[in-house]
Amino acid sequence: xxxxxxxxxxxxxxxxxxxxxxxxxxxxxxxxxxxxxxxxxxxxxxxxxxxxxxxxxxx
Length: 59
Hints:
This protein has strands at about 5, 15, 30, 40. The chain is an all-beta fold. The chain has a two-stranded antiparallel ribbon. It has a two-stranded antiparallel sheet with strand order 3-4. The two termini are about 15 Å apart. About 5% of the residues are buried.
């Protein structure tokens, strides 16, 4: 169960662990920040589109 958060495009609250906004339908991206990388990973990305590092969902 992930943290509760607002949609990145509108003010709708997402349920715990939800990846898609029920209001606008956008998918939530997570920040990469590996070595300071500013890339955003979509829920189905296995690696960062900016730095090509593998997704680390553990932390």
